[in-house]
Amino acid sequence: MLLDTHTSEIEAILGRYASKRSAVLPLLYIAQDSYGHLTDKAIREVATILDMPHTDVYEVVGFYTLFYNKPMGAWVLQVCDDVPCCYLGAEELITALKDTLGIVEEQTTGDGLFTLQRVKCLAACNRAPVLQANLDYVYEVTPARVGALLDSLRSRVAEAKQRGVSGRFAEDYAFGPDGALVQIERPAETVAAPAAPVAEEVALVAEEVALVAEEVASVAEEVASVAEEAQAQAEEASPTQLAPDGSPAGEMPKPETVTGGDAIPAHAAQQEPPAEPSEEKPAQAGDRSPL
Amino acid sequence: MALTEHVVMRELDIPDIGDFGVYLKHGGYAAYRSALTEKTPADVVQIVRESGLRGRGGAGFPTGVKWGFLPKGVFPRYLLCNCDESEPGTFNNHQIIDRNPHQMIEGVAISAYAVEAHTAFIYARGEFAAAAVTLERAVSQAYAAGFLGKNILGSGFDLDVVVHRGAGAYICGEETALMESLEGKIGQPRLKPPFPAVAGLYGKPTIINNVETLTNVPRILEKGVSWYRTFGTEKSPGTKCFSLSGHVNRPGNYEIPFGLPLRELIYSDEYGGGMKDDRPVKIVIPGGASAPWLTGAQLDVTMDYEGVAAAGSMLGSGAVIVLNDTVKAPHLAYKMDEFFKHESCGKCTPCREGTHWLVKVLHRLAEEGHGSEDDIKTLHSIYTQMAGNCFCLLGESAVMPIKSALRIFPQEFEEMVVR
To answer: Do B264 and B303 sit in the same domain of this protein?
Structure first.
């Protein structure tokens, strides 16, 4: 159950809104990552948490393009075919992907690794042609770079570094001078100290935050030592580099033994990290009082 | 001449401005601090009004005037930052979040103070997944430093900022559809009036502004109205982050004062760097998908609200798509209306059916290559029935590409007809 596996994250989300129903999109993202796609069970679970008629949740799932009510590949490749990308190589890119993967749009490869979709403008027209892989941007994907892209995505699945389809922990990528896919650096992650003295109570709050961060850090360490995939997680969830929700920064499904046919890697609930640090978010949710 | 100091895209002056520490070092959150401790909300509204800042999301409405529409004494109020940037050719909000997120958040915070809102939502399109992570992190940093939360800087002002990710729907950039989406419903627009300032999110007074608009605010407060008005024109003060794309050598975001000739934006080495392979400009869409097209003969247009309007188009979101002579007008109209068809929310018939049939007929003409003479008449008939009859601007916008194409390049449609 989502409420058991994602207690702190869901509580924090619910704490942000005056109306529970406002949390439907973020909760559907969590459900989608947990179940691989939005199954009937997942949709009804979200409806129950939010006290919404389940038909309303179905309506939401049907309206927004980033919710999937059928199994998807481990990587959902969404290529922008809009203006101006369509005049700057998007069609060639789609053809190259189709040829390499042996599928057409809206299909999933037999090994369950890739689903291909055409999408509308991705707001990166200056770096055409562009696609998203599970909402990680990949810029300037010329047909010649398709091989390197797919290899990198395959190896991320093999190394269990692939993330859910909802993009809750997304990163962006571009190709380096050597043709390899490299992650684009984001603004610094450390919480800097205030530049000038601030009012006392603010300093207190900051202290509390620091304390909470420490607790989270220790929990994260425990998680790392308990979990089998300690190595991979510890890298992502080192004490100073927590994801915004306080959970270890990577929610990584275990490596999938993908078989042929239409098998789709299921991002089942038990593949979530075994425990989530639960202290930080409630504290923050407390700071951000419900409206 | 390129700016020596940027108002919004300050990562060009200070590369690591996205880093919280660097932002603070360069005066970050000082304008916010001074607003909270030395100015009343009404003072801030007045300053923004005097600056002449106009909404950058497309409509170009004066921001300070918009803030003045709030009914007096009705609370709670909400501030929404519209970051649903999804129209073909627009990508400056994306860069602002990626590279200068704290100035955006400071802008949200100052503006929330100005309109006396204690909760602000940043609604980011669902595809801005990594960007939302960046924003979440920046918001957490602002909380930790005491810039958000309760009794901020001892001023008694409380503010919570929530980053809310959409899930894939261009229509959610329409302000009332955004509110519906934020309330957990499908993103279909509401009937106006009442306008959001009177009854918006959860039925409460709500101000909604674009990312670029709000990112201007800290600099206006920090450097003053007269400094801000040294940029741009009398009616379009300040700078604009133009998203230049298409067949130019150097596509990208360029922040320039309003008033630059289009030709210079395309050909100057500081901006577009000319056309790829030196091919001629055929079509320019100067303000996003909903702007009527300009042609290669109109490159002397000045890039400000009044200049582009005088040329029969609109500056809109400042998304400038430049296309060369390899592009066929019917195909471009097809692709553009395919976008609108895909994004139509389905609420009203003229838009839902109109975009559907436009695309169907255009596909036959431009893609399948067996259009009939009647198809051209049908296209005229469809957009005429849509114009003025759609529930919101999405449907009205879908009229522009096909109307432009038929008006400027009728012969290209004739050539597509199989006789």
So the answer is: yes
Compare all CA atoms of chain A with the CA of B184 and give the residue at the minimum distance: A22
Q: Domain check: are B112 and B34 in the same one? A: yes
Cβ pairs A/B, distance under 8 A: 252
Look at B140 and A284 and tell me if their CB atoms are within 8 Å: yes
The pLDDT, as a whole number, for residue B186 is 98
Residue A244, phi-psi category: left (phi > 0), alpha (psi -120 to 50), beta (remainder): alpha
Residue ranges for chain B with pLDDT beneath 70: 1
Residues B174 and B130 in one domain: yes
Per the CB < 8 A criterion, the answer to whether B236 and B108 are in contact is no
Check: CB of residue B160 under 8 Å from CB of residue B78: no
| Pairwise CB contact (< 8 Å): B245 & A84 | yes
| Residues B150 and A288 sit within 8 Å (Cβ to Cβ) | no
- Separation CA A28–CA A22 (nearest Å): 11
The domain of B25 spans: 10-228
Q: What is the reported pLDDT for A187?
A: 81
Is B20 a domain residue? yes
My answer on whether B350 and B299 are in the same domain is no
Q: Same structural domain for residues B75 and B131?
A: yes
On whether residue B1 sits in a domain, the answer given is no
| B273 in reach of chain A (CB within 8 A) | no
Quick one: CATH architecture of A75-183?
3-Layer(aba) Sandwich (3.40)
B75 reaches A (C-beta below 8 A): no
Taking every pair of Cα atoms in chain B, the longest distance, rounded to a whole number of angstroms, is 77
Determine the Cα–Cα distance for residues A275 and A102; give it in Å rounded to an integer.
39
Q: What's at A28, amino acid-wise?
A: L
Residue B266: CATH number of its domain: 3.10.20.600
Is A65 in contact with B162 (Cβ distance < 8 A)? Answer: no
Domain ranges of chain A: 2-63, 75-183
Look at residue B211 and tell me if it is in a domain: yes
Residue B122 maps to a domain: yes
State residue B2's pLDDT score. Answer: 76
Q: Which CATH number is associated with domain A2-63? A: 1.10.10
Cα–Cα distance, B408 to A38 (Å, whole number): 47
Distinct helix (H) and strand (E) counts, chain A: 10, 6
* Distance, CA of B308 to CA of A216 (rounded, Å): 54
Within 8 A of A86 by CB-CB distance, chain B residues are: 335
Summarised one tens digit per residue, pLDDT across range A89-114 is 999 999 999 999 999 999 999 999 99
Alpha-helical (H) ranges within B229-348 are 262-267, 305-310, 329-343
Please identify among residues 358-397 of chain B the ones whose CB lies closer than 8 Å to any CB of chain A. Answer: none
Spell out the per-residue pLDDT of chain A, length 291, in tens. 999 999 999 999 999 999 999 999 999 999 999 999 999 999 999 999 999 999 999 999 999 999 999 999 999 999 999 999 999 999 999 999 999 999 999 999 999 999 999 999 999 999 999 999 999 999 999 999 999 999 999 999 999 888 899 999 999 999 999 999 999 988 866 544 444 433 433 344 444 445 545 555 554 555 444 444 444 444 443 333 333 333 333 343 333 333 333 333 333 333 333 333 333 333 333 333 333
ipTM above 0.90, yes or no: yes
In total, chain B counts a number of residues equal to 419
Of A86, A166, A168, the CB nearest to B335: A86
Contact between chains at B323 and A87 (C-beta distance less than 8 A): yes
> Are A63 and B146 in contact (CB < 8 Å)?
no
Structurally, chain B folds into a number of domains equal to: 3
pLDDT tens digits, residue range B47-65? 999 999 999 988 899 999 9
